[in-house]
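Technical annex, item 7. During the second reporting period the consortium partners agreed on a shared format for inverse folding records so that results from different sites could be compared directly. Each record opens with the tokenized structure and is followed by the designed sequence. A conforming record, contributed by the partner at site C, is shown below for reference.
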């Protein structure tokens, strides 16, 4: 078996073993990828160009859209190219880059989802302190802290993962380079230090999730005191949509990274990976704009402007 010093490339998991299904996978992922590019791109342009959306909530939303674009661009294009050209390989450097950028972008997204929950908590439960607690400088500092923490987290995990000796070949049972699948290639006892890091990461993610849940528990208590039924319905629907996004991303990530090896299977691993790495970037723009009149109005103006430019 090759060791890590002799490995120059890895072999990624094939979605199908027939040419027709490979092309089907290519077109399916292309449709999802284009939807993610269009949806997140429109949100970024709308928030950047519409001065009415220059608020903390939309500032964090713009950051989330940037992260979604980055995360899906890290994994999906390589998988599409492999299916189109009927190959499985990814270079050692390319695999390292995938692990780093995916961890970086996903960890920053967890932190920003926590900040979005904090923004909603302050806006609804402490509206008189909103300008003080979430001023432009405070928002910039919190976003910078999230990006910086994500960078350090990704550097630590990537360096630790690729310093492990690999004794089990170079075939990765996933459509992109994922840490749990790379650990399966490591020597028997050498992966324990990375497992410790993954468990500590789980504690951090769980802490973010608990903070989000507690924030929304306080928000729901405040919303129940709103006299208008329409106002209660709007607030509940917005909060529940955000909680749905958070629950999907965090729960599937936890399953992917911390599930026992005894229940692991290629089909389960593949399904979970698609759920947490491919679908959220494509669905988040739809979820974010579904109950948001301000964002829908800004997107409508933007589309009308594009239409006028074509005439």
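Designed sequence (site C submission):
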């Amino acid at each position: 078996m090759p060791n890590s010093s002799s490995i120059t490339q890895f072999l990624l998991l094939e979605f199908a073993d027939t040419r027709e299904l490979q092309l089907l996978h290519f077109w399916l992922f292309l449709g999802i990828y284009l939807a993610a590019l269009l949806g997140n791109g429109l949100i970024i342009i709308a928030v950047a160009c519409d001065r009415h959306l220059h608020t903390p909530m939309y500032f964090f939303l713009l950051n989330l859209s940037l992260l979604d674009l980055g995360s899906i661009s890290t994994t999906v294009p390589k998988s599409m190219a492999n299916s189109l050209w009927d190959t499985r390989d990814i270079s050692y450097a390319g695999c390292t880059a995938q692990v780093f950028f995916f961890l970086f972008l996903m960890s920053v997204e967890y932190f920003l989802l926590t900040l979005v929950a904090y923004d909603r908590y302050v806006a609804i439960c402490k509206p008189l302190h909103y300008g003080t607690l979430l001023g432009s400088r405070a928002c910039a500092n919190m976003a910078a802290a999230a990006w910086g923490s994500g960078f350090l987290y990704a550097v630590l995990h990537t360096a630790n993962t690729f310093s492990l000796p690999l004794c089990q070949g170079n075939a990765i049972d996933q459509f992109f380079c994922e840490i749990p699948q790379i650990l399966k290639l490591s020597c028997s006892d050498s992966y324990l230090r990375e497992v410790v890091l993954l468990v500590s990461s789980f504690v951090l993610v769980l802490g973010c999730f608990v903070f989000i849940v507690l924030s929304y528990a306080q928000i729901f208590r405040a919303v129940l005191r709103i006299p208008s039924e329409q106002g209660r319905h709007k607030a509940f629907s917005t909060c529940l949509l955000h909680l749905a996004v958070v629950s999907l991303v965090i729960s599937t990530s936890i399953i992917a990274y911390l599930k026992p090896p005894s229940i692991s299977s290629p089909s389960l691993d593949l399904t979970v990976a698609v759920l947490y790495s491919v679908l959220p970037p494509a669905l988040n723009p739809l979820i974010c704009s579904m109950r948001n009149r301000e964002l829908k109005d800004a997107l409508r103006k933007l589309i009308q402007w594009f239409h006028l430019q074509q005439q």
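The radius of gyration is 21 Å. The first helix runs from residue 19 to 49. All partners now use this format for quarterly exchanges.
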